[in-house]
Amino acid sequence: MTISEMFGQSLIVAVLGMSVVFGFLCILIITITFVGKVIHALGWDKDLQAPVKPKSPPPGPVPAAASGAGTAQNVGVTAAIAAAVAEYRKTHS
User: Fold this and answer.
1) Residue 69 burial by CB count (10 A; 0-12/13-18/19+): exposed, middle or buried?
2) What contacts 57, CB < 8 A, 6 or more positions away?
3) E-assigned strands of 1-42?
4) What is the pTM of this model?
5) Number of neighbouring beta carbons within 10 Å of residue 72
């Protein structure tokens, strides 16, 4: 078997492999599109079509730090960062 015959075979195998992958991806896209249309036709996506209601704040007192400069989420993030820094200093000192 000569070099040119080996190159010819390798080209055939490469094209065949890429064709199989391309065909699989086309079938996958068609299947996903079909399933999406079936789900939409059956109405199983109603939770995605409904408007999202904003969450109400949890009952209870508002933390002092959140009442002025930031929100409760910022207070939680600050507490998490402070705890992480304290843990780092404890283990690396």
Assistant:
1) exposed
2) 72
3) none
4) 0.47
5) 14
